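Example 3.2
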Amino acid sequence: MEALIKSIKNKNCVKIIAGIDNYDIENILKVIYAADRGKADAVDIAAREDLIKLARTNTDLAVFVSSTEPEKLLMAQENGADVLEIGNFDAYYRQGIRITADEVLKITKKTIEIVQKNTMICVTVPGHIDIAEQIELAQALEYLGINLIQTEGACTSEAKSAGARGLMEKVLVSVSNTIELVKNVNIPVMTASGITSTTAGMAFAAGASAVGVGSAVNSLSSEIEMLATVKSIVEAVKPEKILTPKTSV
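Structure, written as tokens:
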């Protein structure tokens, strides 16, 4: 956890997301391997006891566990999760469901009530709601004592161009949301949605303390592809970490 907190303070934290509704053990192991060997700072997995144990067994990186159910987050806390995350909301969006600010606050308050703030909590601010409402929600979350907020936005923006230009179009909403939230809260902000080695620098330039990388890694088929992608993202934001070999014990 000390390494995670340090990377957030240094504004160069990289979290690799397996997915809130990803229960594919083989894929999750590949994501964990890539995050660990690629020198990311954290992995983010779904809230299931066996997956948490899988992560704890295979990496020393900080483990985020994502859910929208407070009881599952309590289970995650009891099984050694380092960070409890309310979000990511991708599973909802794929079903055509748009979670509201009020629903996020309700889930957050219930989670705090049952976990007693003994574990770091991160909350995703829905990217589809009006920016004024996002700011209001972020400020309410800060007042509740939340440690970290995560932005999103790619689910509301479809790239019309190919290549690098298309990547920029996709991440634009998430980065724009980051700029507004960073200006209006005093807690760290993590930018997610559309983050790649090409766009990660934009998020940090916008004031983010961390980036969350999902489909750019978890949608790949092989460990080697995932590892190469994680390394390229980490190298883009903190090249000294890739260049420094691990100390042998």
